[in-house]
Amino acid sequence: MSRSRSKELGPSVATHSAIMPAVLLRVSARAIVLTALLVSLVAIGAGFILDARGFAGNLLAEIAGILISVLLAIFVIDILLDRERARRWKLVSNETLVTLQFAVIRAGLEIYLLLPAPRPPGADPYTSSMSTHGSIPESLRALACEIRETEVELDPDIATRLRPQFEVLRDGVMPRLLTIGEHDLIARLAALEGTAQDLEHIVWQDMRFGYSDALPKAIEAVAEALADIAEAVDDDLTANPVAGRAARKAADPPHTSADI
Q1: How do residues 122-134 score in pLDDT, each as one tens digit?
Q2: Could you tell me the residue ranges of all domains in the chain?
């Protein structure tokens, strides 16, 4: 209602039209639901009173129809959501998978350089990134074994050197995966985040109270979590040849990290 029209009708109408939106906003959704439920119960009771047998048959038919409609709608919506998720993942999968793999390789390399020279080439995730499918996870699991079985002079600064790669995964990759809904990678990244927090805590204890025997186990757990992520990424890169070729081309190093 326009302002001029409200003035023509008088101040009471103008005031009423002004406060109506506020009144409508105060209507509780709970009150609407309760009112609808009450009306439905009254209608059902009246139907049974007027014609119990006929109304019961119609009511059962309506309930069956509603259930079938709801189940069909859920099924169709799930299909549409899956297609939309797949479409969005296809748009960003190349960059996301390559970024994820690079962060895993760089984090694994920082751990690999803790090993004394000469370092075993089979535990080198950087060099393994040029090889066949499955080589990066295998190298990271071999690295975890080397950390467990080798006398390693562990550097408490390892947590500081790993932090940039963890930030890439946490702040760059994780939000994108949460939006798209890649549940497997999300779970593996969450597991890595847990091991990273454990490592940070143990390094803090080491700085405050001296060397801790838990530090090698924490680094081993990080390497295992990186291997789990690399395994999922390898599977996705195998299903996405374009991203796989891009990752191998960008990871082509001039020499092996065992020489560093």
Answers
A1: 899 888 877 665 5
A2: 3-50, 79-259
